[in-house]
Amino acid sequence: MRSVPGAGCLLLCLLPAILRAQAGGEAKLRPPPCQQSLTKVSCRAAELHSFPESLPQGVKHLDLSHNLLQNLSESHLPALGQLEHLDLCSNLLETISGPVLARLPRLHTLLLGSNRLHQNYRDNAMAFSALRGTEMLDLSANGLENHMVGGFLSGLTALRALHLSGNRLSQLPAGIFQGSPQLSELDLSNNYIMDIEEGVFEALRELAVLSLALNSLHCLSSFSLRQLQVLNLSHNALEIFGWEEGQGPYLLQVLDLSHNRLLFFPQLPAAHHLVHLNLSHNAITSLDPSSHHPAQFVLRYEEMASFNTSLGTAASLTRLAKLDLSYNCLQLLPLLFFRAMHSLLTLSVAMNCLQDITMELVTRDGDGDRNGTAVWQEDTALSVHSMDLHGNAIRALPHWFFDVLPQLEAIDLGSNSLQPCGSDMGSTSGGGSPGAEPCTAFHSIPHLQHLSLRRNSLTQLLPRTFSQTPLLSLDLSENRGLAVPWAVLEGLEHSLQQLWLQGNHMDNSRAEIPCLDELRVLDLSDNNLSLLPMGLFCSPLQTLDVSGNKLPALPKQALMRWTHSLQALCLAGNPFHCCELGWLDELQAAGVQLPDLHRACCIHHSITNRTAPLSSRPPWPCPQPWDGKLVLVLAALLGVLLCAGCGLCWLRGNRVGVLHPQPQTEREAEGGPAHSDTKV
Ligand SMILES: *[C@@H]1O[C@H](CO)[C@@H](O)[C@H](O)[C@H]1NC(C)=O
Ligand SMILES: *[C@@H]1O[C@H](CO)[C@@H](O)[C@H](O)[C@H]1NC(C)=O
Ligand SMILES: *[C@@H]1O[C@H](CO)[C@@H](O)[C@H](O)[C@H]1NC(C)=O
Ligand SMILES: *[C@@H]1O[C@H](CO)[C@@H](O)[C@H](O)[C@H]1NC(C)=O
Ligand SMILES: *[C@@H]1O[C@H](CO)[C@@H](O)[C@H](O)[C@H]1NC(C)=O
Ligand SMILES: *[C@@H]1O[C@H](CO)[C@@H](O)[C@H](O)[C@H]1NC(C)=O
Ligand SMILES: *[C@@H]1O[C@H](CO)[C@@H](O)[C@H](O)[C@H]1NC(C)=O
């Protein structure tokens, strides 16, 4: 039996080598041929040095990208009167001769990205004057400099989309786009643009999408492109972004100002159409656009009254749905600022310096009874559905916080310093009783479905912390030393679907999970569990992570419950017993995916605690019950053999005893020398 798998393995080992040899031989003979269909030809990455000679007459779509073409001259090019789309990206093109392009009268898309057209830019530019009908031109990554671009565009009157990213532009001279007045999409990203001359975009009445991302712009003080719908200014060095006053509304819908150096929320006076505003990765310390004084870092309470005037800025943002203020330096989040943003759904203020969110909008002193709630009427409530506040220094949310956000469905409060209250302590939320740590109530929040309290240094949670909040997912990970007595999750038995308890250093006594009928996803990785919490066995788990614990085996009850529901299980980093792996067989038989099985090990306790990989069953024998039986059987067999041997001996002995003496006695009787007598 053993020689057969050996031979099979040998064949398997050799097979790839044989196949490779064959494939290599073929590849050397000829590069992969072009893929052809009726009107479409693709010779992508076919190691072509020149234009393919025979092409079907009616071809409309030709892909020659990723080849070695250097020179596009007349002699190489067959007449392709029907060609509409030509992709020559990633070749070595330096020269395109004039009459060549004239032979492609129907060409509307010409892709020339990643070539070397700067080499003969004068001649190449001349050749381009033949492209009167072309609507889309990709000239990205061609080493083009400021003075080269204008020439290329001078005759492209039909051009609608132009890609110039990854060139060497440092400046946009006035008139550069004069030849292409129909441009509606312009990508100038990833250049070195520091300076945009006035009126550069003036001729472009149709311009709707403009990317100036990844350049070196420092200041845009009077943005005036009212026709623009998408403007990408991310990854520049902007400290100021100002709009031109007066004269009708802007059509801008998407404005990406991320990764700049803005110190203040930009003034966006007439941005009535703005839907998506990205201000992440700046240095914004205040939401007050009128505070142009760098020293004025935080909005103070006295300023709240004058804040009313600056609300004019935010007031125009009635269609804003997504606002990203993450990675800035805000210390205070005055929710009144967002009041006019009736459409705001997603707000991120993650990774700022927010401390206690004191969102009272009236002065504190005196007016003891005027708490924040009074300011908020039904119609002033924020429409935000999803809020990200992770990575701040918030110790408590004010008690009216969730009242102001009645539609809130998801909130990420990870990496803060919050302490949840128990369900019976709601009134002390926010302020807390004097001397006590302030706590935040998470119960009775009508629409909240997703809550993260990851990394909040939580240790002790009180009973019914989340009761009457219809949570679907709860993240309590990375709270070292956290204890979850079963009453904590009381109230979530019929709603919770996903629970994260990873990296809490929980031992068996600290993880008491009640019966959660709906739980589908559970992460218990990196804890100190040697037993799975009993309550889990009634959950219809689909995804379970128990990696990095102290489990010797998975219990039978769990398997019986889960083999029908479980789809994936992570289990590496547990001291499983090599000789008790029946559970693993069951899981594999049930088709459960074990993505980290290759990293999992088991310990062989009978052989000086040696570990073995779980994926290949350990080669050492296990002291199992049937081993004993085998010994018995062997012993019995041995006994039988022995007896049989003895019996045989005895029998043989007797026969010898019977047969031998007879002749002797005969001889003795007949006399010894009888033989000699008869023979002689
Ligand atoms: C391009 O190819 C044509 C025809 O083979 C040749 O005459 C011309 O010199 C080449 N141009 C360059 C710049 O190599
Ligand atoms: C802006 O450009 C950057 C860099 O190209 C890109 O990563 C980002 O997704 C763009 N933003 C939008 C809103 O398209
Ligand atoms: C804002 O920009 C940052 C960085 O470019 C990006 O990571 C983030 O996803 C963007 N935010 C939104 C809401 O698109
Ligand atoms: C705030 O603005 C509203 C309307 O814009 C105005 O009626 C009110 O008087 C202002 N309040 C203060 C304190 O300026
Ligand atoms: C805060 O306002 C609410 C609603 O107006 C009110 O019921 C509550 O008593 C107020 N709290 C304090 C401390 O004044
Ligand atoms: C978890 O187990 C490790 C290793 O046995 C131990 O050092 C650590 O103290 C345990 N942590 C807790 C919280 O019990
Ligand atoms: C094997 O491990 C167990 C528990 O970890 C320990 O008690 C025992 O001494 C170890 N045996 C050997 C031979 O190392």
From TrEMBL:
Transmembrane feature ranges: 630-651
Gene3D superfamilies: Ribonuclease Inhibitor
Signal peptide coordinates: 1-21
Keywords carried by this UniProt record: Leucine-rich repeat, Membrane, Repeat, Signal, Transmembrane, Transmembrane helix
Cellular component GO terms held in the UniProt record: plasma membrane
InterPro entries attached to this UniProt entry: Leu-rich_rpt, Leu-rich_rpt_typical-subtyp, LRR_dom_sf, LRR_TM_domain-containing
Matching Pfam families: LRR_1, LRR_8
Highest taxon listed in the record's lineage: Eukaryota
Record-given protein name: Leucine-rich repeat-containing protein 32-like
Protein's gene: LOC107312602
